[in-house]
């Protein structure tokens, strides 16, 4: 079971909801986390259970970033809007930097999201289970 974060900028929330609907059969087997509004919108449209953090601009990105820093997040689906300035851009950059430091796969659009979720469905993320097994403080 993987720990997966779902984040979407305002103009990408519909894409994220549609993505969650399309891949509900895969996502339902994992622990899901999301920023506030994104999580609410997904839960309203699917049967998925999602732990919701605060809204991104209110600290939700940082809350997910804390899990990444602890290496307890396995995958991030972050549908970003590259054409809109974000007031919390430093938080977003910090989250992406931490993901790179910890080697956490991040999808920033539907195309890369599909690649990662299909890999997840095939079981290609078994290497993350080794991280959980051998890193102190991480439990399944």
From TrEMBL:
<dbReference type="GO" id="GO:0005829">
    <property type="term" value="C:cytosol"/>
</dbReference>
<feature type="binding site">
    <location>
        <position position="9"/>
    </location>
    <ligand>
        <name>substrate</name>
    </ligand>
</feature>
<feature type="active site" description="Proton donor/acceptor">
    <location>
        <position position="61"/>
    </location>
</feature>
<dbReference type="InterPro" id="IPR004363">
    <property type="entry name" value="Methylgl_synth"/>
</dbReference>
<dbReference type="InterPro" id="IPR018148">
    <property type="entry name" value="Methylglyoxal_synth_AS"/>
</dbReference>
<keyword id="KW-0456">Lyase</keyword>
<dbReference type="GO" id="GO:0019242">
    <property type="term" value="P:methylglyoxal biosynthetic process"/>
</dbReference>
<dbReference type="GO" id="GO:0008929">
    <property type="term" value="F:methylglyoxal synthase activity"/>
</dbReference>
<feature type="domain" description="MGS-like">
    <location>
        <begin position="1"/>
        <end position="140"/>
    </location>
</feature>
<comment type="similarity">
    <text>Belongs to the methylglyoxal synthase family.</text>
</comment>
<feature type="binding site">
    <location>
        <position position="88"/>
    </location>
    <ligand>
        <name>substrate</name>
    </ligand>
</feature>
<feature type="binding site">
    <location>
        <begin position="55"/>
        <end position="56"/>
    </location>
    <ligand>
        <name>substrate</name>
    </ligand>
</feature>
<comment type="function">
    <text>Catalyzes the formation of methylglyoxal from dihydroxyacetone phosphate.</text>
</comment>
<protein>
    <recommendedName>
        <fullName>Methylglyoxal synthase</fullName>
        <ecNumber>4.2.3.3</ecNumber>
    </recommendedName>
</protein>
<feature type="binding site">
    <location>
        <begin position="35"/>
        <end position="38"/>
    </location>
    <ligand>
        <name>substrate</name>
    </ligand>
</feature>
<dbReference type="InterPro" id="IPR036914">
    <property type="entry name" value="MGS-like_dom_sf"/>
</dbReference>
<dbReference type="Pfam" id="PF02142">
    <property type="entry name" value="MGS"/>
</dbReference>
<feature type="binding site">
    <location>
        <position position="13"/>
    </location>
    <ligand>
        <name>substrate</name>
    </ligand>
</feature>
<dbReference type="InterPro" id="IPR011607">
    <property type="entry name" value="MGS-like_dom"/>
</dbReference>
